[in-house]
Each structure stands twice: as structure tokens, then as C-alpha cells.
Amino acid sequence: MAALAGAIVVGGGVNTYAEDAPAANVKVDESEKLLRETLDKADKFIAKAEQTKEVLELKKEIISYREGLEVVRISPEEAQEIIDRINSKIEKIKKSQDEKSEEQIHDVTTKVEIREIEAPIKYQASDKLKLGEIGKKPLKKPVNGKVKVTITTKIIDGKEVKEEKEEVLVKEQAGIFEVGNKEVKEEITKFKTIEKKDDTLAKGVRKVKVKGKDGKVINTVTYDVDPVTGELNNIKTNVEVKDKVVDEVILVGTNEKLAKQQDKKDKKDTKTPKKKAKVTLPKAGSEAEILTLAAAALSTAAGAYVSLKKRK
């Protein structure tokens, strides 16, 4: 150990351990291997331990040993002495930190609680409901969860520290509600009436050339539904033309000559009485004559009765 320490101080020197035989070299290699393993374990301990003054001093010592091994070879006895020294310091530090930990922690209490976890609510789109309407009944009923919580309270350095450990008893199940995400509107467009002059028609005459028809358009608005909040977003529109508008076309006559001709014809028809149809009666005394007279009498009686009723 003295040889190793001397080599570290002077930054390199003559090895004080004489290699007299090949067997000695084997022992040296094995002892150095054990020492390096001990140094590796010490590094791991230092990394996890509380960084106290003793731990930091051990860390510096480990670094010195590693640097010394790079410049000088040591005997098995020296290697074992260093190993024992490191292990002794580690045990001493462990004991010191364990005692300190026990002194710091007081009044440990444990309590168990059963807590209910409210089930989340999710939403999904439906084209059966009105736009924005939420279904009264859920598609899937929510199930609240239950958790067993063990609460440990410790007093460390005069401060209360709580630790909670959870154990799931019943897993919560999300409820699902529908939200109306579609709106369909029917839009009617009234047809227009267009008048066109026509000199082939008598003046004042109106004639429908094309019959008008109202147009019909179906407007569909669709939204996405936020599964968490149920809000509507990302609007999408679709326009479908069911019936096209057909404007009504009316021809208006402008021909005055034809109008005058038509007027004359109408006046002539009014002045000329219509000829009554001549009724040929059957010869008297025959069976047909008797039936005809009877029918005429019934007709006359019926006419008189109707006239009397109207007067009343």
C-alpha cells in the first residue's frame, strides 16, 4: 500500500514489488483484478449513498487508487489491505446513514381509505337527434371505480410526509352518450313568371307556354363531435338539388287585327239565336204516342214542383 501511495504522490515511480517468478505475476494479476472489482462496487455505493463528507472523501480515495493502478503494480498483500480499507469505510458509512435515517423518522401511522373514482363520460355522433341535442339515455351506462388507498404518515426532521399506495378494486367504465351532429334543411325556390309578347295571338289573349315549377334544394350540415367535451366542430356542408327551378312562360297576344276579327265573331254569335231541334212525335193512338205524352206530363209536373220550391 505504501508503494502505491508513493507512486500516486510523485506521479509515477519505480515499482517496489519485485517480480521474482512467473507464479508471482499470476498472483499480482489476480489481486489487481479483485481490487478493481472492489473499486467498481465502491463507485456504485457512492452513487446511491447520501453525499456526506465521509462519502465524498471515499470518492476521492477511490479515484486516487485507480490512478495509482495505472502507473504501478502492487503486491497481493497491498491489494488486500486496500480492499479491506475500502470495505471497512463502506460499512462504517452505511451504519452511520442507517442510524441517521432511524433518528429522523418518527411517529409512523398508517390509514386505509376506500375511494370512489367517478367514471368519465364520452360522446359520439348521432344523426337521429337534433343538432346539438344530447341523448337522454346513455348508450353505455357509466360505472364508477373503487380504489383502496393506504396512507402512511411519517415525521421526518419535524416535517409530516405522507405516502399513498393505491390498489384498484373496481375499474371505472366510461359512459357513452349520443350527440346530434347533423341538420337537414329543405330550401324552396319559387319560380318566376316571365311574359313574352306574341303577335300570333290576338291582343289581350294570354297563353301558358311553359308551366312554372318551384325548385327544391336539400342542405345537409354535419359536424364532428369531440369525444371528451361533446362539442361540435369541423363543419361539413353538402348541397343536393332535388328539383330545378322552372320559370313559367306566358305568351301575351299583341295582334290587334285578330282581336277585331274575334270580337266581330263573338258579336255575331250573340245576335244569331240558336235553332231549336225539331222533335218528331209519333202518330196518335199508337203505344209510342201514349208513352211520349206520359213522359211529357211527368216532365211538366216535375218542372212545376222545382219552380215552386225555388219561390218558397
Concise overview:
The protein is an alpha+beta fold and 312 residues long. The chain has six helices and eleven strands.
Commentary on this structure:
The chain is of the alpha+beta class and 312 residues long. It has helices spanning 2-10, 22-48, 53-69, 76-104, 256-271, 287-311; strands spanning 105-117, 121-126, 145-156, 159-170, 175-180, 182-189, 193-202, 206-210, 215-225, 232-243, 248-255. Strands 1-3-4 form a three-stranded antiparallel β-sheet. It is rod-shaped.
Topology at a glance:
Elements: H1 2-10, H2 22-48, H3 53-69, H4 76-104, E1 105-117, E2 121-126, E3 145-156, E4 159-170, E5 175-180, E6 182-189, E7 193-202, E8 206-210, E9 215-225, E10 232-243, E11 248-255, H5 256-271, H6 287-311
Parallel strand pairs: 2-5, 7-11
Antiparallel strand pairs: 1-3, 3-4, 6-9, 8-11, 9-10
Helix pairs in contact: 1-3, 2-3, 2-4, 3-4
